[in-house]
Structures are given as C-alpha cells and as structure tokens.
Amino acid sequence: MPSHCYCGGRVIRETSRTEQDPGKIYFSCEFRAKPGYHIRKWWDRVIEEELEILHSEIKRVSGEIESLQTHHRAGMEELISELKDGELTFIIMDMRIAEKRISDLKEEHEQSKAEITRLELVIGDFNKKYKAVESTFAIAALLLLLAWFLVWFK
Predict the structure, then answer these.
(1) 3-state secondary structure of 4
(2) Does residue 48 or residue 154 have the better pLDDT?
(3) What stretches of the chain adopt beta strand conformation (E)?
(4) pLDDT grade, residue 9 (50/70/90)?
(5) Beta partners for 4?
(6) How far apart are CA 10 and CA 4, in angstroms?
(7) Within-domain flag for 56
(8) Contact at 8 Å (CB) between 15 and 25?
(9) Is residue 113 part of a domain?
(10) Rg of the chain on CA atoms, in Å
(11) TM segments (predicted)?
C-alpha cells in the first residue's frame, strides 16, 4: 500500500462522504486539495495491486526455488565424479549454504501465501461490511422518503 504520494505527502485512509460513493474507502494524499498530481485510489484497487505484487513475488520465489533445486541436482553428480580428497569439505559447505537458501526461499514462499490468504479474508470482510452499509443506507433513504410522504400528505 502506498505510504507516500508523488508529491512527497503522506498517503492517508479516508472515507468518501459523497452521494455517489458513500462510505467508500480511499487512500489519498494528505495534500490532494492542493494543485498538482496526487494519489487517490479506492481501497479495493490498492488491495488488488498488493495481491498482484504478492502473486508475482510468489512466482519469482517459486522459480528461484526450482532453479536452485535443478542447479543443485545437476551439479551434484558432476561434482561427485570430480572430487579429490581435500575438496569434499568445501563442497559440503557449499551444499549446506545452498540448502539453507532453498529453505529460506520456501519459508518466504509460505509467508507470502499466508499474507495473500489474510488479505483475501480482509477483502471478504470489507465487502460484507460495505454491503451492510449499503443496505442500511437504502433503508434509511426509504424511511426518509416515507417520512417526507407522510408529512407532505398529512
């Protein structure tokens, strides 16, 4: 989620109070009322962008894991056939470093998947709340119309 605008100002969370988008959440530059080009994005679009970034990061990490595993396996047979007495220790150390890197990447991958799941839950909760607010707004509008009707024709 953006923390700063193109102009350098902080990006803040605000709720729309317009008739077109009542209750809609935006991320906006704190200076958006001033002249210039400023950030103002719907909350759901920002979350979609975050999910796209996380998905691409997961693909990158998955590709890196695959590449490391393939490279690691391919080189093992070749290295074993070329080993000399003193080189075995260094190769084992390199293998441990590579295995640690693979383990770290797998952990990153799992964390990214967990973050995507969490964000999807947040989006689901937000959509439920937004629909509830939308329904409440519609009911309030109908009650107001009914009250006006009763006052007018009394």
Answers:
(1) strand
(2) 48
(3) 11-15, 25-29, 40-42
(4) very high
(5) 10
(6) 5
(7) yes
(8) yes
(9) yes
(10) 27
(11) 136-153
Q: How many domains does the chain have?
A: 1
Q: Where are the alpha helices (DSSP H) in 11-86?
A: 43-82
Domain that holds residue 111: 47-152
27-43 b/e (C-beta count within 10 Å ≥ 16 → b): bbbbebeeeeebbebeb
Confidence (pTM): 0.39
Taking the C-alpha atoms of residue 153 and residue 40, their distance in angstroms, rounded to an integer, is 45
* Angle made by CA atoms 10, 16, 3, in degrees to the nearest 5: 20
Mean pLDDT of 73-95: 72
Spatial CB neighbours of 5, under 8 Å, sequence gap ≥ 6: 11, 29, 30, 31, 32, 38, 39
**C-alpha distances out from residue 142 to 77, 110, 128, 135, 153, Å:** 76, 48, 21, 11, 16
pLDDT of residue 83: 64
Mean pLDDT estimate for the chain: 83
Q: How far apart are CA 116 and CA 123, in angstroms?
A: 10
Residue 10: pLDDT over 90: yes
Q: What pLDDT, on the 0 to 100 scale, is given for residue 25? A: 85
Strand-by-strand arrangement of the 25-29 sheet: 11-15, 25-29, 40-42
Does residue 26 lie in a domain region? Answer: no
